[in-house]
Structures are given as structure tokens and as C-alpha cells.
Design a protein that fits this description.
homodimer; 300 residues; alpha/beta; UDP-N-acetylmuramoyl-L-alanine:D-glutamate ligase; nine-stranded mixed sheet; four-stranded mixed sheet; 11 helices; 36% helix; 26% strand
Chain lengths: 300, 300
Amino acid sequence: MSIVVMGTVALDTIKTPHGFKKNMLGGSASHFAVSARLFTPVHLAAVIGEDFPEKHITFLKRKGVDLASLTTVKGTTFRWEGEYRCDDLNTACTLKTSLGVISSAIPRLDTHQRNIKHVFLANYDPDVQQEFLKLFKNPQLVGMDTMNLWINTKLSAVKRLLKKVDILIVNDTEAKDLTHELNLLKAARCLESYGPKMVIIKKGEHGGIFYSKRFIFAMPAYPLEIIIDPTGAGDTFAGAVMGYLVKSSHINASVLTRAISYAIILSSFNVEDFGLTKTAALTLKEVHQRMKIFRRFFLF
Amino acid sequence: MSIVVMGTVALDTIKTPHGFKKNMLGGSASHFAVSARLFTPVHLAAVIGEDFPEKHITFLKRKGVDLASLTTVKGTTFRWEGEYRCDDLNTACTLKTSLGVISSAIPRLDTHQRNIKHVFLANYDPDVQQEFLKLFKNPQLVGMDTMNLWINTKLSAVKRLLKKVDILIVNDTEAKDLTHELNLLKAARCLESYGPKMVIIKKGEHGGIFYSKRFIFAMPAYPLEIIIDPTGAGDTFAGAVMGYLVKSSHINASVLTRAISYAIILSSFNVEDFGLTKTAALTLKEVHQRMKIFRRFFLF
């Protein structure tokens, strides 16, 4: 049992009311992997440039992430510069995006990984996501994320891909943009009709909702007084959901609520420091300590 | 065991994407009472004008609400006209407010009710709230609400009153305006430092958070696809919290989570129809059916 995550491995430069950090290890696949590895072995598929620091490779390996499908190509690594302002820590203002190698090279899958049954397609060009998915012989549980850029420019490709996935994990604005529904439950129902059996809508500081034909639920976020850097919280959330589902032998209502409660807890840790600092150092023991507090919210 | 609620009894005219209703029974005290009566006897203190329809009196009486402190004075009843737009059902646009009798007359307390131990001061001029509270011989559990109008115009009176109350129940924008804190947990901590031992911040469709020195928790709203009229959801919430606490012999973490889960459920019913239509017809049996579904959200 293991999962392949396809996404970005990036160098993030981030400014928040709490500080400024340059060229940190970031990207959807990195955040996903560092979260999911607490539950299941993770194989990471992404492209990086020749300038990618060796220390980040060492770091991911030390976290147990399999990098057989991490490909170095000629050019520079994807870089993202963003800022969060104190009046809205839920929304990143992108200052600069340098696509570098991800504008031409696409993630490949090591041949030994073609039999893996679990895949997460992190936010990427939906055509690339679809091609990547085709590399698997018999995928059993496929999750995906997307973003407004693709919803606005490649909607039909996004919808085509939705037919092939089991779980869609998006945030509230993406769900609304994909469906033109303002009510999130209506949006989720509409998204489910596009293909995925399970739809998770992330609401940042307000938690998330889960939708399937048989079962619907909402969960609050873990309340925090200090949020240092929200970057990667959504990928951390997805990593915990998928990691926990892969670890579980079957999927039912109770497994799903547990998966999402882990996602809530993991992402609460993620935002408490810059980049991967907090989640990288995290053990399941610490996760369970916070989970114990979270559980007490629902004593009724 | 019973509770006195002091607030408004109004005639509401409301436009939402789902329809238009004229001169419905509304007001903070009405919504509070119709919710709280499911848990404990309620005494309502408010002023109405000579134009107040007899049928609304009959209705409140039939719901078991004690109207000994409902005073009819010369003039017209407080009227509110509001609109909700489909892109933001969380926020009411006030079209017209006619204060009528509440601009001069203040709610009085029947002498037989001076020994009652539980009081809720719904949104009102904070000086009137304070004077009303003084009428009680030995109040044991005092809750209050307020609104931006008073925060902006009578902040020192609001803060003076906060020293005398046990539970503050406000919405997120009120909490932020009262404290100048953007983070709701920081806002709640700050509000607690003003006096109330317990602070509840309502977040509309995103649920609510509870704060006390010993215990903090968050709860999601009950997810709904169709919201007909959100008017009074906050007062319905407060009614359930206070009603349940009064009913309980003591207050601890588990009683508080139960009180707030009832508040979430009651307000979810409230918004499913205009005015008091849904909550007035509600039985505890229906509440418990929805509660059973809500509980399943937290199986983890």
C-alpha cells in the first residue's frame, strides 16, 4: 500500500505578517508528501531544474519520500513568490510566478510504479494530469485537485478528468467557480455529478465539507490564534486525507470522518510555521495529542 | 428554572431570493423565546406599540412564552425591512428601520420575575440592557448580545455591561469590531478579558467557536442546500444555548458542547423558512433527529 503524488516541487519565497522566507522547499507534491508520509509510503512525481538545491532532495529522502519519479531537467525550478496580508490570511497574493521547467517538461512515472493503486493528481495542467493518470495499469483510488487558472482556461479538460477520479479535493472558491453555485452543498452535489464519488471542499479557517451520495458532513478547522504561513495547507490536507484512506483497508463513513479530521489537524500544524518546517518535524504522537483536544469539541 | 429574555418584538418585512414577506412576527426576543422554550420556560420582556397584531400575542402564548413583561405603549411597533441577496445570505441589507415605541419606552420587568436567576439581554441599547439587569435581585447566569451600532456609538457602555455578564454571544464581525482583532480566537480571548467567562462567536454558515479560559472549541454549521431566510438565526442560536444551559443543573465542557450543538441545529431549522415559521412548529423530536445526523459527522 502506497500512493503516488504528481504535482509541483517548487522554491517558494513568502512574505507574511510574521516574516519573509526566500527559496524554501515548497510545491503541492512536497506538502502533500510530507503530510501523507505519516500514514503511508509516498512516491513523488515532479520535475525540477538543475538549480534545485541538493539539500531539499536529502530532506525529502530523509522524510521517507520515494523520489524515483522526481526528474531533473535542463532549466530552472518552478518558483513562486507570494504574500499574505494580515486582513486575509486565507488568500495568497501572488507576486511572481516563474514556471521554469514545468512550462515544458512533464512529470514521468518510474516503470516500477505503474502497478501502484493509489494516485493523487495535485493541481496541474489538467491535460498533464490526465496523461499521467494513463500511466497507471489499474488505479483503484484516484484523487485530484485543480485551481482557478485551469477552471478558467481549460474547463473541458478539467471536466474530462473529473470523470476518471474518485475524490475531488478543492477549495471553496474553486468549487464555486467550477459549478457557478454559491451554496457549497449545491456546488458539491454538482461536482459529484461530474464524476467523483467523493467531493471535499476546503474552507481554510472554516474547516471543510465532505459530500457523497450516501453521506455528507462538515468539520470545523482547528482554531488557532497564530497563523504564520498558510502556504501548502490545502496540499497538506489532501495528503492526510489520501494517506489515511490508503492506510485504511476500506472506506466507510467512519474512516472518512477520521481521514478528514487528520487532514484538519495536519493542516493546522502546517500553518503554524513557514513552509514545511512544522509538518516535517511532526510525529503521529503530536498529531494524536492535538486530535485528542479536537475530539473533545464533539462531546455532545 | 426559567429565563427572562429582554429584547425586541418586531414586525419584519423581508425580501430574500426565495420570496417576500410583510409584517411577520420578528425581533430578537421573539426568535430567542421560540428557540429557548424547547428547553426551559421563557419570560419575554419587550415593548410593542398599539398596532401590534393580537394574533402574534396569541401565537407567543401558545408557544408557552410568558408575556407578563411584554408592554404595550402608545405608538407603533418596531419595524425592520431587510433584504438578503443570493451572493451573500450571511449579511442582511437593512432597507428601512422604524424604531417606533422602542425609541422612547424601555422594557420593564414584572415584579414577580425579579427573583429569576437567568437572563438574556438580546441586542439593545447597552444602557437599557444595564438598567434592565439591575432589576434582578440575584442573577446567576447572564448572557448578552450586542451589535455594531452600539459598538460604534456606545462602546464604553457595552464594555461596562460586559463586566456584568457571564456569556457573550456575538457574531464574527461584532467580535472583530469590539476588539480590533482579525483572528477570532484572539478576539474571543480579548472579549473574555473584558468580563464574560464564556464567549461564543457565531460565524453564520461556518458555525461557531466557544472560548473560555479552560476550554475552547469550534463547531461547523449544519450544512444546508437551501436557505430561505437567515433573519433571527443568531437569536435562535442564543436561545438554544441559554435554554439548554438553564435546563442543565451545572455547566461543564460536555454541557457546553451540547448547548452549542443544539444552537447549531435550532438555527439550521430557523433559516429553512421565513421568520419563525419553522422553529415555531419544531418539536424536540425533530431536533434530535437532525442532531443524530450531526453527531455522525464526528465519528472519528
